[in-house]
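thread from #wetlab-drylab

HS: before we spend reagent money on co-crystallization trials with pyridoxal-5'-phosphate, can we at least see a predicted complex? here's what I'd submit
DV: go for it
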Amino acid sequence: MTNKPAIEKLIRPEIRALKAYAVPSAKGMVKLDAMENPYGWPPAMVDAWLEALRGVALNRYPDPAASALKERLRAGLAVPAGMELLLGNGSDELIQMILLALARPGATVLAPVPTFAMYELIAVAANMKFIGVPLTDGFDLDVPAMQAAIAQHKPAVIFLSYPNNPTGNLFSSAAIEAVLRAADGLVVLDEAYHAFAGKTYLDRLGGFDNLLVMRTLSKQGLAGLRLGVLAGDRAWLREFDKVRLPYNIGSLTQATAAFALDAKAVLDEQAARIRADRDTLTRELKSLPGLRVWPSEANFILFRVESGEAERVFQALLAAGVLIKNLAGAGGALAGCLRVTVGAPAENAAFLQALRAAL
Ligand SMILES: *Cc1c(COP(=O)(O)O)cnc(C)c1O
């Protein structure tokens, strides 16, 4: 039953104006749209994991503080001494907790654009205003524009995706430090793609009292698990922890993540393979006529096809059974742009073959 007048009266207009985050069906497709790791675990590791799960008491609530897992994460991620951790059901939930806690009337959220869509979506859901500051032509932070927007809007928080999704690059250190110095609110470095980039601000946490660093296990092979990690000063995280739902990290997730961190060498080896395949795929894309291909420090590659061709190429790939991401609809810097996730070698080959045929 729908009741349009009641919906229009009761649902906030900015929510009605949103489009739900669309995830297309990938059944039977070569799936290169969502930055997933294409590799599973070796069979012996799966057996050991299932054995570890046998001991989980599902009749009991999970450890609300996930203490054992946090200890493993501290060691596994090399979190600096003195810094606290907060866990989320994916880093998406951490973004939501941060914004729920900061959403005073009139508060703003700022990010360079184009960037990860959830910063704006969650800002709107939290009743905050989102300010997007265009990146430079080379996709670096536009420092004067960021400084001006910070002075004008006094954002409660700035999100910097490092490397940036969907452009794939790392912002320059000088630009990031200029933003950290200009901001009187928080700056969250979202290091979702850290495994493919190597560079981090985790070891700089002590140097800036407005810096927080966010990681996720999603892009490293555990997208189905939903575990995000926020690292930073205890005083900040204690406040965000108050809006966290008490049992947000389930027992199966806690046990599985702890197991995976003990087997971190397997995940690291997969990330190294993906990095090498990214460089191969970048070279092959660059050899195709009519494409502009951007270098990537993540596990995806942004490329632009000739004017007016993006939707046709995207559909031709779909018809050939290859799902990537069409970003052209966003326009602006992303006009004509498509984004492909680095898959296993056979998937990358299928993508290249379909793309060659489409061009
Ligand atoms: C994919 C992605 C995330 C979401 O990660 P989850 O932990 O799966 O919620 C966060 N930030 C950026 C920049 C991403 O690309």
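DV: The mean pLDDT is 95.
HS: ok that's useful, forwarding to the group
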